[in-house]
Design goal:
Length: 250
């Protein structure tokens, strides 16, 4: 079955722009392009797209996905088996976090009591789904510093760090209807900048900080996680981070 780009986008639930981008970077090239310029996708193209989206869901950057699926040794069946194992592990972690959320709601209603340990079941700083992407963008040294820093923390220190992160995100979420350049927004975004530089063993340059803000919007996974604190927060943070950098570069 041959499908046009719009039909593939509707079938899969991604944008036409995303498919165009995959074609432009050589990640997914349609089997045929008509004389009028229409991209035509085959069943084999769809199978490749499925693989790409499995890898993407598991946190692999597009550059790495392209490298993997173009290897002569790439085996689709082996890849699917690996996807299955990784997704099961991810589901188990999410199930634990869902249970923690449900217990916390009951705790807030006074229906149950929770220990400090129970409040953080499901959180796992030792498995970062964005680690490979961070390595691609900023190099191994920065990520190794961050992992070493977090790895050396006690459980109490990790819990404290998690709470501080949540507190900053909530503060920014409350300000997201203000101007990103407002005094309040800039004070909160400076708190985020200082937090990143003080807790991960790596000093973000102003340019790297601005690039990080852009990634919050460009990467759907980052946007979804950040926007859990308030719809539009990722875009607000991107704009506030850009304003912070521009202001401090003067």
């Amino acid at each position: 079955m041959a499908l046009k780009v719009k039909e593939v986008a509707e079938l899969v639930g991604i944008s036409v722009r995303t498919l165009h981008h995959y074609d432009e970077i050589g990640l997914l090239t349609p089997d045929k392009v008509t004389e009028s310029g229409y991209r035509i996708y085959s069943n084999e193209n769809l199978e490749t797209l499925q693989q790409i989206l499995f890898f993407k869901e598991l946190g692999f950057p597009l550059k790495k996905i392209k490298e993997i699926i173009n290897r002569p040794s790439f085996n689709r069946q082996e890849a699917l088996e690996l996807h299955h194992k990784m997704l099961l592990e991810k589901r188990n972690r999410l199930d634990k976090m869902i249970a923690t959320v449900e217990k916390t709601m009951m705790h807030l209603k006074g229906e149950i009591e929770m220990t400090n340990e129970e409040k953080f079941e499901g959180f796992d700083f030792s498995h970062n789904p964005y680690e490979q992407e961070a390595r691609e963008k900023w190099g191994d040294e920065a990520v190794d510093h961050a992992n070493k820093k977090v790895g050396n923390m006690t459980k109490d220190e990790q819990e404290k760090m998690s709470k501080t992160m949540a507190s900053i995100f909530k503060k920014l979420a409350d300000l997201r209807n203000h101007s990103p350049e407002s005094k309040e927004a800039q004070a909160a975004i400076k708190e985020w900048y200082d937090f990143l530089n003080n807790h991960f063993g790596h000093q973000y340059t102003l340019d790297a900080f601005k690039g990080l803000g852009q990634m919050y919007v460009d990467d759907d996974r980052f946007m979804k996680n950040i926007d859990k604190y308030g719809e539009g927060l990722a875009k607000f943070m991107r704009d506030a981070m850009a304003a912070f950098v521009d202001k401090n570069k003067k």
